[in-house]
Amino acid sequence: MESRWNYREAQAYLKDPLQLRVYTSRLLGQEPALVSYGGGNTSVKTEVQNIFGETEKVIYVKGSGWNLATIEAEGFAPVKLEVLLRMAELAELTDAEMVHAQRAAMTNPYAPNPSVEAIMHAIIPFQYVDHTHADAVLTLTNTAEGEERIKEIYGDEILIVPYVMPGFVLAKKIYDMTREVDWTKIQGMILMNHGLFTFHDEAQASYEQMIYLVSQAEAYFFKKGVWDVAVQGEAQEDLTTLAHLRKEVSQVRGQAVLAKLDASPEACGFANLPQMKEIATRGPITPNHTIKTKPIPLIVEDNLTEAVQQYTTAYQEYFQRHDDGSLTCMDLAPRWAIWPKHGMVAFGDNIQEVNIISDIANHTVTAIQRGEALGGWQPLAEKEIFEVEYWELEQAKFRKTDQLPFAGKVALISGAASGIGKACAEMLHEQGAAIVALDINPEIQEIFNQPDQIGIKCDLTNQEEMEAAVKSTIRHFGGLDILVSNAGIFPKGQKIVEMDAELWNRCVEINLTSHQRLLQACIPYLKLGIDPSIVIIASKNVPAPGPGAAAYSVSKAGLTQLARVAALELGADGIRVNMLHPHAVFDTAIWTDEVLANRAKHYGMTVEEYKKNNLLKVEIASRDVAALTCAMAGDIFSKTTGAQVAIDGGSDRTV
Fold first, then answer.
1. Same-domain pairing of 19 and 86
2. Which of 192, 238, 428, 441 stands 20 to 30 A from 26 (CA)?
3. Residue 112 gets which letter from DSSP?
4. Catalytic positions, please?
5. Domain around 550
């Protein structure tokens, strides 16, 4: 491992201890082998002036929820140093009391909660303190004779702290152990099954000491010839089984989850090891990971339902073995799975959770292989793992169950580069869904370009492109729950007698046939969705066609009839199919200022009068249609299918 310290970059921060702390924290966070997603914490001690002009000592500690790789100054919680040091002297303190006391000692009430390890940072008598969950060090602590190996590598330069559960008890343990320690004679501190601390009065020295100590551990693995891990060639793809697996896990968890497949050579290499099942289920790198991942993964077998049921039964028994009667059992669903011949799968109700779990899983399988080769993978005992998973602080979080309505759901929206489709995609995402947005306009790839917002350029009249887009949806998120079939065109007006054959065929192909093909491609996955729903965006022209709009009106009427038949066919599979008939939605691409002005003039109205030419005298916007689309896809319409709902402000031609 090499130092990322850059002297030129660092010059900008040398005069401000907190900014320098931000800089070196990011250096740590950007090294995957040091910090799995969101892990680790850092601090800096300094002096500030309070509102009375008095100087007081504070420690800026990484705040809860912040990622070291991207942390800003506001991600550090300023806590009065004296209070933390006095807390360390207390004989006992619950972790809830500790968190409350730390919060009360903050000098900025708007800062995030300080790390639960703030007291440990305060105890260490140096200005800068770095703490990571370095893979190489943690792997050593999870092997037979791990402590002896650490002594072999570091000698007396490292203080070894036996495993103690995080929180006040651990802080107290370190306080008691270090009262007589000459800190100048130790280079770092290893907490067994927890992580590595380094410290110094210079930020660069503390950071580079971390790099040096971890490099020594890595060199030990190279020396023993146990650094390499298994890799496998191209994975097998089975999107239908992936969607089925996601459904099984979602049902056990009691909510929809995303499922991210890792089919990398490393993931497949581990999944295909002959001894995989035995070594993968011994336990995690550190109990802290169980808060996100649970103690062990699901092993995917041929019978998915049976495999998930066996996992849930085993988890329930694990809980019952250690529950003292005061705890609430969390859901029984796995957070990640190992799938022979395919790789690994992470499950979560949002993309951030999925990425965290996937990241931890990757670190875990690497550590397991190296630890097993070094002398045997030997994590902590089950009881100690359980104590962290059911920590009182985590139980408090567990009781906070507020969620967005579409959390964990996957939505596919066609015609999403502008207007109604774009508004539907945005609102579904705002309400928690991961979305895949399709459009023939290449700008779709930039409009929706986030981990849980995928834009795909797709000509829906091209069968191959459309099928590839649907498969890409499953690859990204594991399944499909909501289809908003919206793509369409409004051609120039032509009377029937003047109808251009090419215009007619193009309108029918886009407004009707492409929707049928999209339905055909999506239905197999929707059958494996969670409370699956299809919303068809039709038109007011279905019940009230206009002269000169035969191609558009007929194609939209055909689309409505297609949706009605789909409702009849798919009801037995629990798939709801409902239709919306918007009218006069003017914030779409077809309604330019010129077109609006001409239409208003034709009817002898101002533009504003024309926009509100309905019974309620209201203007209909794309987001109004999107809101109704979300309602149709959600709980409000959970027992409705085959419905046709107008959103037009009321029309005297249809009422």
1. yes
2. 192
3. P
4. 552
5. 410-585+621-647
